[in-house]
Design a protein that fits this description.
- There is one protein chain.
- By secondary structure, the protein is an alpha+beta fold.
- Helices cover about 20% and strands about 35% of the residues.
- The strands form 2 sheets. The protein has a 4-stranded antiparallel beta sheet, with no helix packed on it. The chain has a 3-stranded mixed beta sheet with strand order 4-1-7.
- About 15% of the residues have low confidence.
Length: about 110
Amino acid sequence: MKFLLCCCILFPFLLTAQVNNRIAGKAVQRSTGAAIPNASVFISGSSLGTVSDSAGNFELNGIPPGNFELIISWVGFTTLVYPFSSDKLPLQLSIQMDPKVEELGAV
């Protein structure tokens, strides 16, 4: 019975901690504002990652304490690196990606 009472008391605090350790955002094309679906979003050097949904939205939860780099990439666009500290969480980001321009060599 004490266990159940403890769980009921601590559960709201655990949820609050989980919500505070998150990064959410939306990946869009800078020039058009169009959503970028299936963009890869992950924290460098960790196993935390996700992909953006069809509207370009993404969310990462349960980020541990420390300093990290958030990497956002998608084929045909320049990879973005966003350094952050868990002290600044939660974060709500608007990621604007530029097309990757590659020039072919002269023939």
